[in-house]
Amino acid sequence: MAREIRLGLLDFDTSHVVAFSQRLNQKGVANTQWVEGAKVVIGCPGKSDLAPQRIPGYVEEIKNIGIPVVDKPIDMLDKIDGLLLCSLEGGAHLERARPFLEKGIPIFIDKPFACTRKDAEAIVALSKKHNAPVFSSSSLRYAEEVVKVIAEIPQQDQVGAATWGPASLSEKPDKNPGLFNYGIHAAEILFALMGPGCIRVQANYQKDTDQVIGIWSDGRIGTLRGLRAGNQGFGLTVFGKKAVRSQVVGTGTIYRELLKQIVTFFQTGKAPVDPAETVELMAFLEAANTSAANHGAMLDLSK
Q1: Which DSSP category does 95 fall into?
Q2: Which helix (H) or strand (E) segment is 257 a member of?
Q3: Which of 86, 84, 85, 83 is closest to 103 using CA atoms?
Q4: Is the CB of residue 109 less than 8 Å from the CB of residue 82?
Q5: Mind listing the domains of the chain with CATH numbers?
Q6: How far apart are CA 206 and CA 296, in angstroms?
Q7: CA distances from 92 to 50, 123, 259 (A)
Q8: Among 50, 55, 301, 303, which residue is least crowded by beta carbons within 10 Å?
Q9: CA nearest 187: which of 159, 155, 151, 161?
């Protein structure tokens, strides 16, 4: 039997630290949600410029699961095989990941991977330099409905796709700006459906709605609608060459399914989502924010 992977948990300002730990350590959640192959063996609450008030409560929940907590990230370095970097703020991820990548430790980086294309590229460069794999994904990429529709209408059979989902804005606009805050989930579904290859982006912002249009290199068009009013569930439509599928996307098993992918990543050292696609997704969101701030200007992602 393969040895169980030892994971560290860094930065406790998101509910994901509890959700991930419950499922991996098989405590405090129904056994239908359990994931095998890895355990969180140590955690560091870290710091937060975005939501520091959340940390004390999550520290207590992590301790109740039975996970020891240390004061400094470096105190975890020699005790783990991989790291779950869960900082709520994407802009913090480069520097939080750096000491672990420099030690060759593979990292799952929670969404958003970064908040600029430049930072995303820097994380991937560090990963390659130190042979320390990185993986990042929204849990919505692995929602059962998304996986099912991709199987029914794969990319080669598509004309285009549309996704929608909540797009609440950060309470601190300089942290996780615009769509990076929550619109990333609908964007991740869009890229799961369409794959990489977006070359141009145009976006418009209104108080209650974001509307983003992406043009792919093969001529397909993908659109994203970010919702801040009315029903704010997730959904998708795929326009196929022979059929159209429209589907509401549920969230009941998304953490479990994401964690299965995370465990496989740590076991194999290969990211289920190519880091180049993740960089492109960050560039897409950055361009959408810039376009929306410039009256819907069309931006070229190749520049």
Answers
A1: H
A2: helix 254-268
A3: 83
A4: no
A5: 5-137 (3.40.50.720), 140-254+282-300 (3.30.360.10)
A6: 11
A7: 10, 11, 22
A8: 303
A9: 161
For residue 5 the two structure tokens come to 């992977």
CA dist 142 and 55 (Å) reads: 27
303 has a pLDDT exceeding 90? no
* Mean pLDDT of the region 111-125: 98
Nearest to 251 by CA among 93, 177, 141, 91: 141
Task: Give the amino acid at 263.
Answer: V
Sheet of 5-10, strands arranged across: 38-44, 5-10, 82-85, 107-109, 134-135
Q: Is the pLDDT of residue 148 over 80?
A: yes
Question: In this structure, what DSSP letter does residue 270 have?
Answer: -
pLDDT digits (tens, 9 = 90+) for 42-77: 999 999 999 999 999 999 999 999 999 999 999 999
In percent, the amount of the chain with pLDDT more than 90 equals: 98
d(CA 175, CA 252): 28
Say which residues have a Cβ less than 8 Å from residue 39's Cβ, sequence separation at least 6: 4, 5, 6, 7, 24, 25
pLDDT tier, 110 (very low <50, low <70, confident <90, very high otherwise): very high
Binning pLDDT at 50, 70 and 90, where does residue 11 land?
Answer: very high
CA distance 159 to 219: 8
Q: Enter the DSSP assignment of 49.
A: S
pLDDT, one tens digit per residue, over 192-237 is 999 999 999 999 999 999 999 999 999 999 999 999 999 999 999 9
Taking the C-alpha atoms of residue 133 and residue 31, their distance in angstroms, rounded to an integer, is 30
